[in-house]
Design brief:
Blueprint (H helix, E strand, L loop, with lengths): L1 E4 L10 E2 L9 E2 L10 E5 L8 E4 L5 E4 L9 E4 L2 E3 L3 E3 L2 E3 L5 H16 L3 E3 L2 E3 L1 H8 L3 E2 L16
């Protein structure tokens, strides 16, 4: 698989990784909100994607991606610990029903099951997250600032 950083930026083009373990700071959320966390487009290794290049408001060259333009892709948003105290959810999803996108979704689900993730409500959580949940730590479903009554709870 190929993991391409999803950015809208004036910085150089995004990073590409061929292993999830190569992505920096796995397990640490880059944002206090799940929707603001780092995202990656996931494609087959032989199916790279290209950013849209455009001029920003101040004339600078910028790069951006649009998931709807890449029917063979999946979006992966990294969750993780925020400030070392609240675990925020990640996400793997796609807009597409192409064979390639659905195959990637199946590969992610297979990996979750292989790593003994457990489904709690609509979330798949790993062993460490389950231990956090059992010990009373926060597993927020949206953001660090969200009221605790919206946190993930065991049935």
């Amino acid at each position: 698989m190929r993991f391409t950083e999803n950015i809208n930026s004036a910085s150089p083009p995004p990073a590409d990784y061929t292993r999830i373990s190569e992505i920096p700071n796995i397990g640490i959320s880059s944002h206090r909100s799940a929707v603001g966390a780092d995202q990656y487009f996931v494609t087959a290794i032989d199916s790279p994607i290209s950013p849209r290049v455009f001029q920003g408001a101040n004339g600078e060259t910028r790069w951006a991606f649009d998931h709807s333009k890449w029917p063979k892709s999946v979006v992966m948003r990294l969750g993780g610990l925020w400030l070392g105290e609240t675990l925020l959810p990640g996400l793997v999803d796609t807009l597409h029903d192409t064979v390639e996108a659905q195959d990637l979704m199946k590969r992610f689900l297979k990996s979750l099951k292989k790593e003994d993730f457990t489904k709690v409500s609509e979330f798949w959580i790993g062993k460490e997250a389950m231990e956090m949940l059992k010990s009373g730590k926060r597993l927020a479903t949206a953001a660090h600032e969200s009221p605790p009554e919206f946190d993930l709870k065991l049935p």
